[in-house]
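Suppose a colleague, Dr. K., hands you the sequence of a protein chain of 149 amino acids and asks what its three-dimensional shape might be. Before reaching for any lab equipment, you can write down a predicted structure in C-alpha cell form. Begin with the sequence itself:
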Amino acid sequence: MPKACLISSSRSTSPSLAVLPTVWLGVLHALEKDPGRWKFPSPVRIVIGGTAPPIPLMRALDKHNLHIMHLWGMTETTPVATVGRLKRHMLEWTEDQRYEVRGKQGWPAPFVELRVTRPGPDGKDVEARVTAKHPANSRYVALGRCQLL
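The predicted structure, expressed as C-alpha cells, is then:
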C-alpha cells in the first residue's frame, strides 16, 4: 500500500491526498529506504482524519514536500468538525510552535460550534461557559436531531 500510494501521488497532478494515518508511516519508511526514488517538486497536502498525527511523522514528511493537514469529525458532523491548520498570524511563530498547533485536533470548521471541556480537580468537566446541550453543533447535527424527533 505505501509504495502504491507513492507511485500514484508522484505521478498525479493533484495537490492533495487522503489516506489513513497509519499508511503514512509505511510511506515514510519507503521514502527513507530508497531516497531519491520518489520526488514531489510541488507541495502535496495530505488530508488525514482520526487521531492527530505524531509530530515526528509530520516533520519527516514535510522534508519530502508532503504536508499533513489533520481533519476530525464524527458521523453526526457530516463529516468534518475541526481542521488542523495554521492561522495566518501563526506563520511567524517558531517551527516548534507551528508543529505543536498542527499536531492537535484543530480549529472548528465553518458553521461548527464546539463545547470544549477539561477534567477539573474533582474529576468533573470544567468549562468557561456552556454553549450547547451537545458537545458539537453544526447545521448537519441540528438537522439529524430534528429527524430523530
